[in-house]
Amino acid sequence: MHICLSDGWGGLEMYPARIIPELQRQGWEAHGLALAGSRVAVSLAAAGIEPLTVPSRGRALLQVGPVLTYLKRHGIEVLHCHKSSDLRLGALLASLRPGLKLFFTDHMGVTRPKKGLYHRWAYGRVTRLFAISEATRARNLAAFPLPATRIQRLYLGIDLAPYAPQLDEAARQSLRLELGVPVGSVAIGLPGRLTDGKGHEVWLEGLARLRELASDLAWHGVLIGGLTAGEGSEESYVARLRERVVALGLQERVTFTGFRHDLPRLFEALDVVCVPSRNEAFGLTVVEAMAAGKAVIGADSGAIPELLEADSGRLAAPDSPDAWAAAMAELGRDAALRSRLGQAARLRAERQFGVTAHVAALGEAYSQA
After folding, report:
1. Which of 8, 45, 253, 359 has its CA 20 to 30 A from that of 23?
2. Buried b (16+ CB within 10 A) or exposed e, 256-278
3. Contact 40, 12 (CB under 8 A)
4. What positions does the domain Glycosyltransferase subfamily 4-like N-terminal occupy (predicted)?
């Protein structure tokens, strides 16, 4: 049973529904526990399982009896939590029903020690903690009251198939025009939630300097992500970005797309994908862009350098607009280089970051327990 009692919507919340179909293909009977009416619950239903639901995180602890009954009725032996706050319930269930194995994935990358009495009790019941990168595993080893043998690095995986090119050239050009990209321009995109910490402002400064550094280069910036709180973004931050675009004189050269359901197709419309996040615990957007065969520029921080090798992308300092401008100029001017990097990135994604391999490793950990 995957437990995700979150009313938000991001990579963490999307994870259970993303992997459950593959778990089922590999022979596991999968269940879910979510907040009633949450997008997590809806996503689980869409993935083919009707989740058990509770009305709120606080009341979940009061529902421990019915949850235990559900676990017994379905013969569930493994619990997998995805938010640290959900460990209260997971650890309680494991305490009340000896034999349950409790797993936890640290999707966020812990930033402060968790070694108080409560944490020693809760994490002490965790059979295996999954770190989603080597960068986060190093933090996990320092922060959690667990021995190294119970903290395993397990890269996330995605379904690669949707990212394979599907558009013919006419459809691709039509989509580029819809995004405001002039004919003959290099489309430079930044996908992801519009929230602080994702590097949008440094990227915009980089575009402004690109205009001066490569005055001969025709380009257009595309900001992909929801514009409202309901779409997962910070509205005050979006307003600040719009103001910055105006201040930098980029109104005619940057498009805000809003939330889109067709991200794999948007990748087809882009020539360069930028991910300037300052401290990514993994970098799912990087992997998605790699799977799409795109030339990627990522921030030289957090876990992103683990994902991008020299022959499959470029790195730029997360706080240096000049570095971003230089990287965008290099890739913008060289279509053959973009193609080589994109092909290498796709191959690396196939080798390292497919959901089939990820779930196989996950299932092996479940089985060993």
Report:
1. 8
2. bbebeeebbbbbbbbbbbbbbbe
3. no
4. 9-161
H helices present in 270-368, as ranges: 284-291, 304-307, 321-333, 335-352, 355-368
Q: What is the pLDDT of residue 356?
A: 97
- Is residue 223 helix, strand or coil? strand
How far apart CA 334 and CA 66 sit, in angstroms, is 61
Nearest 5°: phi and psi at 90? Answer: -60, -45
Q: Nearest CA to 355 among 162, 225, 165?
A: 162
CATH number for 2-156+354-368: choose from 3.20.20.70, 3.40.50.300, 3.40.50.2000, 3.20.170.40: 3.40.50.2000
Is 2-156+354-368's fold the same as 161-352's?
Answer: yes
For residue range 177-199, list pLDDT tens digits in order. 999 999 999 999 999 989 999 99
CATH of 161-352, one of 3.40.190.10, 3.40.50.2000, 2.60.40.420, 3.40.470.10: 3.40.50.2000
The reported pTM is 0.90
DSSP for 31-84 reads -EEEETT-HHHHHHHHTT---EEES-HHHHGGGHHHHHHHHHHHT--EEEE-SG
